[in-house]
Amino acid sequence: MVQQQTPPPAPRGPVMRGRYPYDEWMESTGLPIYRGHFVADPGAMELAEWPERGVNAAFIQLMGMQGVCEARITEIPPGKSSEPWKMAVGEVVYVLEGQGLCTVWAGDGPRQTFGWQKHSLFLLPRNCWHQFSNARGDRPARLLNYNHLPLAMSAVPDADFQFRGPLEEPERLYGKEEFYAEAVMMTRPGAGGRRGQGVYWRANFIPNMNSWDKLVPFWGRGAGGYVVRIEFPGGDMDCHMSVFDPQLYKKAHKHGPGRVIVIPKGDGYSVLWPGPGVEGERAVCPWQEGTIFVPPDNWYHQHFNGGRESARYLALHALPQFSGNPYRHQIEYPDEDPWIRERYESEIAKQGLKSLMPNDAYEDRNWEWDYGDD
Known about the structure:
Blueprint: H1 21-28, E1 33-34, E2 38-39, E3 48-50, E4 55-60, E5 70-76, E6 91-97, E7 100-105, E8 112-116, E9 121-124, E10 129-134, E11 141-147, H2 149-155, H3 159-164, E12 184-187, E13 199-202, E14 205-206, E15 216-217, E16 226-231, E17 238-244, E18 252-254, E19 260-265, E20 268-273, E21 283-287, E22 292-293, E23 300-305, E24 311-316, H4 320-323, E25 329-331, H5 338-349, H6 359-363
Parallel strand pairs: 1-4, 13-16
Antiparallel strand pairs: 2-22, 3-4, 4-5, 5-11, 6-9, 6-11, 7-8, 7-10, 9-14, 12-13, 15-16, 16-17, 17-24, 18-25, 19-22, 19-24, 20-21, 20-23
């Protein structure tokens, strides 16, 4: 008989305020603001002109982001360039559609230019200028921008300081190493456990997250999945991307707020819910390439590959103060609500598919996929 593990009670924690200085600034721009649990197709979002930055844009403020992180869609019109801009915080950019150039500079140093394409991921360093250029003359390019600006504006609620301050950091760009050099594999000191557990990549630019193949087993999360962990130098910005095969699904888990997830590849859905003892219904977020969603703070979430190919989800992380919270928890397959398995089998049956989840996974809480020599 399998003994069920009881999840820890959901802590009440601090009472979250309804509005923050960031909210006041965001609304003052007059740009559209998308709320809810997910954005199914960022390519279909209606944007508005942002003359100050020379782009079209919209903000994404899904449940679980408030006061913690910013996400927005930036569109560069065909053959156009954005206005030069800088921020007091670093920003991660994921390319949803298009190709172009990004030029970055600081102080009197030379301008550094690199090319980006669909699925590229890169860092815009804090207190450095940047400018986007669309290399296509026949279609716009759309970017997903992610940063921790809401926290910075809570500390210093001054837009002039955040965007037009005198501080520049040329040493960030013109150090001993080329800033946008090739990603470097690192091993975290003291990281024990299974092979690959402490491996991460130190990078400022990755050309294509859809084809990234330097993966290690994602032990313990289920579905025989693999993962890459990426840290951006010069701050506490990081992310990870999980890859798992069709006709399988991951284990439910929960953590802190502010993780924005975007889909580089695949079809499926994710389920978000508050968990035992907390009122609220499940939110089912169907996803395809480009879909964006956010698991709210202390909510369980579970990812399901509903297609015929492997799926990838890229999670952009909040600061570590929010991810290493005391109520992290995972639900093992034998302990999950039967609804989870029933729904999944029903959903993929609509495509003539059958679940490849092993029966042992539902009977043994300690059962693990065989990764061979990995």
